[in-house]
Amino acid sequence: QVQLQESGPGLVKPSGTLSLTCAVSGGSLSSSSWWSWVRQPPGKRLEWIGEIYHDGGTNYNPSLKSRVTISVDKSKNQFSLKLSFVTAADTAVYYCARNLPPIFGVVFDAFDIWGQGTMVTVSS
Amino acid sequence: ETVLTQSPGTLSLSPGERATLSCRASQSVSSRYLAWYQQKPGQAPRLLIYAASTRATGIPDRFSGSGSGTDFTLTISRLDPEDFAVYYCQQYGSSRTFGGGTKVEIK
């Protein structure tokens, strides 16, 4: 059973860069799935940040695209998020998630496996 | 960007009752790209329904999804005590967005 685990600093200074890693266990990151980052500010709705495929292909939320970089390390079976020039508005629980793989070749859109989430606070 | 509006914001019901949750999109969404999640305090979201009406693996059949175009519904036929939680819809179009959530609380 695939499991995801986020890791990274829980506190980032304003104007700094938020860096998180998601370790994939129980399966290969090189499967036919995309892998995403999703965040949830306190008391607010979930927000999709972006996604990556094992070949390095990426898609980002247009509202965050200028500040986001998602990368993959197949040798470590993990993928990472960098969010630059952070402000208090970036304070949130950050989740990594697996996009539902195609079923009999049909692509749907949902996140079927989630990490437990990690709280990141932007504060000086 | 497609905005998802969920209603009601809070639903107060008793165990055993039927819950009907609505998700309305600001523009048409492909049914293949509409999903529902359950989230309990301090936990990650859990996928319940994808493709608008297909239950995810291990999800009880008291959960059902329906709808098309701009109007989608999640129905819980008989509320179990473990079903009291917040529910979110999510869509994929040019980007991905989530609804604001419906909290199902014990009356």
Distance between the termini of chain B: 35 Å
- Estimate the strand proportion of chain A: over 45%
Radius of gyration of chain B: 13 Å
Helix content of chain B: under 10%
SSE pattern of chain B: EEEEEEEEEE
Based on helices, strands and strand pairing, what is the structural class of chain A?
mainly beta
Structure, described:
The complex is a heterodimer of chains A (124) and B (107). Chain A is mainly β and 124 residues long. Chain A contains no helices and eleven strands. In chain A, strands 2, 4, 5, 6, 9, 10 and 11 form a seven-stranded mixed β-sheet that branches. In chain A, a hairpin with a 5-residue loop joins strand 5 and strand 6 (58-60). The radius of gyration of chain A is 14 Å and the shape is globular. The model of chain A has no long low-confidence stretch (mean pLDDT 95). Chain B has 107 residues and is an all-beta fold. Chain B contains no helices and ten strands. In chain B, strands 2, 4, 5, 6, 8, 9 and 10 form a seven-stranded mixed β-sheet that branches. The relative contact order of chain B is 0.34. At the A-B interface, strand 10 of A face strand 5, strand 8 and strand 9 of B.
Q: Any descriptors?
A:
heterodimer; A: 124 residues; mainly beta; 4-stranded antiparallel β-sheet; 11 strands; 0% helix; globular; B: 107 residues; 7-stranded mixed β-sheet; 3-stranded antiparallel β-sheet; 10 strands; 57% strand
Indicate the topology.
The complex is a heterodimer of chains A (124) and B (107).
Chain A: E1 3-7, E2 11-12, E3 18-25, E4 35-40, E5 47-52, E6 58-60, E7 68-73, E8 78-83, E9 92-99, E10 111-114, E11 118-122
Parallel strand pairs in A: 2-11
Antiparallel strand pairs in A: 1-3, 3-8, 4-5, 4-9, 5-6, 7-8, 9-10, 9-11
Chain B: E1 4-7, E2 10-13, E3 19-29, E4 34-39, E5 46-50, E6 54-55, E7 63-76, E8 86-92, E9 96-98, E10 102-106
Parallel strand pairs in B: 2-10
Antiparallel strand pairs in B: 1-3, 3-7, 4-5, 4-8, 5-6, 8-9, 8-10
